[in-house]
Design a protein that fits this description.
The chain is of the alpha+beta class. About 15% of the residues lie in helices and about 20% in strands. Helix 2 runs parallel beside helix 3. It binds zinc ion (ZN).
Length: about 290
């Protein structure tokens, strides 16, 4: 049963010791795969089990998004070919804020961080969704899990509430289902949620030092074909994790999905393969950052 954790580890706000504790906590959750944001790979992670852009988001932010495997080697997805069209690099917007990997069982794992830019994350997120559209429309998108800190929520006041709901609808239009909203296992809504949703299906994934609002900025989306396989999706929102990051981990467990549809890379008649790591000045594959 694949078990995944998505977590903004808040690398830049933490001490070396706190970062070690956070990685230890992540391992204690026993995930097969982790989709991490604002993080840096541990030195002992084999390069074949980690997708991360060296240097992270940029010179002032040398941390970024990762996909980590604790069980098997994974392949970085650097380029996409959808329906015979020319290859496309989905890392167009803040390349270090996006990490994409393919597992041996054919899952496409997308770790996404919507960078705040001039006070807006929604503008970054829309560009990232445009970048990801060919991937999610391709055969590789049929068994995809997209998770991370999107920095949006319908808990905000207008006009942001409508704009953020629109972005979440856009993700739905790409064939992705919000796994936290499946409410598996059933849970009570957070107290003091400022949304107008009825029912409220928010979960708290972030604590802000100046706000008592139970903010949800973190999400897990699965392809519609995987939605029946979601056994559980919930935050680890009690106690200890909050000492490690201002976000808490979100866990998703799936029953084993059926084999994914064949990709052009699986077809001997197709031209160049998909989903193979290719050296690129924008996003080198499966390499660790300099220390
Ligand atoms: Zn709510």
């Amino acid at each position: 049963m694949p078990r995944l954790v998505s977590w903004n580890m808040s690398h830049w706000q933490k001490t070396h010791e706190q970062r070690l504790q956070a990685w230890n906590h992540l391992r204690s959750l026993k995930p097969d795969f982790a989709l991490l944001q604002e993080a840096v790979p541990q030195d002992d992670l084999p390069a074949s089990r980690c997708v991360f852009r060296p240097g992270g988001i940029g010179s002032s932010r040398p941390w970024g998004s990762l996909v980590v495997s604790f069980t098997e080697d994974i392949d970085a997805i650097q380029r996409v070919r959808a329906s015979g069209r020319a290859e496309f690099d989905p890392h167009q917007t803040y390349p270090g804020a996006l990490a994409i990997a393919k597992t041996k069982s054919g899952l496409t794992l997308i770790s996404l961080y919507a960078v705040m830019e001039h006070g807006y994350a929604i503008t970054t997120l829309h560009r990232q969704l445009s970048d990801l559209t060919p991937l999610l429309d391709s055969p590789q998108g049929k068994h995809a899990i997209l998770a991370g800190d999107l920095n949006i929520s319908t808990q905000f006041r207008e006009p942001h509430r409508t704009r953020h709901a629109n972005a979440l609808d856009r993700i739905g239009s790409l064939g992705m289902v919000d796994a936290l909203r499946m409410n598996r296992p059933p849970r009570d809504p957070p107290t003091r949620c400022p949304c107008v949703d009825r029912p409220c299906l928010h979960v708290q994934t972030q604590r802000h030092p100046k706000s008592a609002t139970p903010w949800q900025n973190d999400y897990v989306f699965v392809s519609a074909a995987l939605a029946p396989n979601v056994r559980a999706c919930h935050p680890i929102d009690a106690g200890y994790p909050w000492s490690l990051s201002d976000h808490c981990p979100v866990v998703v467990e799936l029953t084993p999905p059926p084999p994914p549809p064949p990709t052009p890379a699986d077809s001997p008649s197709s031209a160049p393969p998909l989903a193979r790591p290719r050296p690129s000045p924008r996003a080198a594959p499966r390499t660790m950052p300099p220390n």
